[in-house]
Specification:
Elements (H helix, E strand, L loop, with lengths): L2 H12 L8 H6 L2 H11 L2 E12 L5 E14 L2 E9 L2 E2 L2 H19 L12 H6 L1 E11 L2 E10 L9 H4 L2 E8 L4 E9 L3 E5 L1 E16 L5 E14 L2 E16 L13
Antiparallel strand pairs: 1-2, 1-12, 2-3, 3-4, 5-6, 6-7, 7-8, 8-10, 9-10, 10-11, 11-12
């Protein structure tokens, strides 16, 4: 190698990495990409395995329940077709009953008879709820990610679920090149109360979300794991719930007869 070329190579190797971006401005720039991912999800069907595990005080599983669904979308509305419980396929009579229920829901959506759901909170509103701070660059699956810590901004907001949102903090990893969230961790900063017939109080909540890039370039969920503990009435509980997304494939329902994609 020529002396000049060698010198340039050494200088390049010693050059400091670029400065980290300002956290809030960087995250605001992600809104468009995340919205496109949410829209893309409506064009896919996938398998969704939900596992709920009740744990003892040593994190041993006391009770486990699983449900496997084939999930697809009709006019942007999510429809889940249950195919297995506790790792066992549904018996024919129960599957037939489930398929009739799904067919009825699809028909109702296609005929615009389904109940209109309350509009969800916009991602941009949730992002404005938090203060983001860039803290590092890390490699995830061989790609460079910006690591950002987030914490709730003070005060109350006019958002559905704000009593929960303002008690959450955590960290996200964003693919620097593609501006896509690849991982997110969050936990609670204070106890949270829920009133669902009886009052439940969560003392701890930890969640981990991971995303993957499909062959067509769309980033969609890989898994979500949530562990939480608290008390309901006078009894303590500790639970782990895991949702695993698999076998993404594009799919569109045009009639109530076409319920599931070809395998």
């Amino acid at each position: 190698m020529a002396p000049v070329a060698l010198l340039l190579a050494v200088l390049a190797a010693q050059a400091p990495p670029p400065d980290l971006p300002e956290g809030n401005a960087f995250v605001r720039g992600l809104v468009g990409a995340q919205k496109r991912n949410e829209d893309a999800l409506n064009r896919y069907t996938y398998d969704l395995l939900d596992v709920r595990e009740d744990l003892d005080d040593k994190d041993r599983v006391k009770k486990r329940h699983s449900r496997l669904q084939e999930v697809f979308y009709v006019k942007g509305r999510q429809v889940g077709r249950l195919v297995s419980e506790n790792d066992v396929p549904l018996p024919p009579d129960k599957q037939a009953k489930e398929d009739r229920k799904v067919a009825a829901k699809v028909k109702s959506i296609l005929e615009d008879k389904a109940v209109t759901e309350k509009p969800g909170v916009r991602l941009s509103q949730i992002l404005e709820r938090y203060d983001f701070r860039s803290v590092a660059r890390e490699a995830i699956d061989g790609r460079v990610a910006i690591v950002l810590d987030f914490s709730p901004r003070p005060g109350k907001r006019d958002l559905d679920g704000d009593s929960v949102l303002r008690r959450l903090t955590g960290r996200i990893w964003v693919d620097e090149e593609e501006r896509q969230v690849v991982r997110a961790e969050l936990r609670n900063t204070d106890a949270m109360k829920f009133g669902l017939g009886v009052v439940a109080k969560l003392s701890s909540l930890d969640a981990l979300m991971e995303f993957r890039k499909l062959e067509d370039g769309v980033w969609l969920p890989r898994s979500i794991r949530i562990e939480y503990a608290g008390r309901k009435l006078f009894k303590g509980f500790k639970t782990r719930q895991t949702a695993t997304f698999d076998r993404f494939r594009q799919f569109e329902v045009e009639s109530e007869e076409k319920l599931t994609p070809e395998r």
